[in-house]
């Protein structure tokens, strides 16, 4: 029988970690969410998908490795990209008990903080044993909540919805280069994010995809 630890071990060489798991409400099988761990970028940036110069290297890398894991463990693969329609990864993440809405509205994870990057999911027909999730979001014990004040222009805060046009406008300025090269300041301000060890080059890649020059 497949074990949770087996999935963790098989995903690790691709820089992936299990970021959540659940038994769906219909009571059938197990769903495991795979995401980018701290070693992910070092592996992706030397992969054939990244080096061939074609578009969407991270998605193509994720498709290759997650589909291989699905074949290895006789599971069904799903991805947060490739739509529309898109699979409901945010709902799955919250349902796993390891991700919550942060004070800024962004999703926060118990290990990755605001540096969440889901890369795929595995659906097993069998009901696997999975660890119990944390009792509560890390935000509940974060007294200062620096994510709510870190954005230089207040595009992300606890008092308003994400101001996407303002964010894009700022990223196109010299002052926005810090966010473009190191990642969103609000995400970086999260204490859990700071301890996760994401490579800034990965954040820069995502920022360039969000705000192409």
What does this structure look like?
- This protein has 213 residues and is of the alpha+beta class.
- Helices cover 35% and strands 14% of the residues.
- The chain is built from ten helices and six strands; from the N terminus they run H-E-E-H-H-H-E-H-E-E-E-H-H-H-H-H.
- It has helices at residues 4-11, 40-44, 48-51, 57-73, 89-95, 164-171, 177-182, 185-189, 191-194, 200-210, and strands spanning 16-22, 30-36, 76-78, 99-101, 107-109, 118-124.
- The strands form two sheets. The protein has a four-stranded antiparallel β-sheet, sandwiched between helices. Strands 4-5 form a two-stranded antiparallel ribbon.
- The protein is globular and about 55 Å long.
- The N and C termini lie far apart (49 Å).
- The mean pLDDT is 95.
Question: In a nutshell, what does this entry contain?
Answer:
35% of the residues lie in helices and 14% in strands. The chain is α+β, with helices and mostly antiparallel strands and 213 residues long. The longest helix is centred in the N-terminal third of the chain and has 17 residues.
> Which H/E pattern describes the elements?
HEEHHHEHEEEHHHHH
Figure out the total of helices. Answer: 10
Gap between N and C termini, in Å?
A: 49 Å
Low-confidence stretches: none
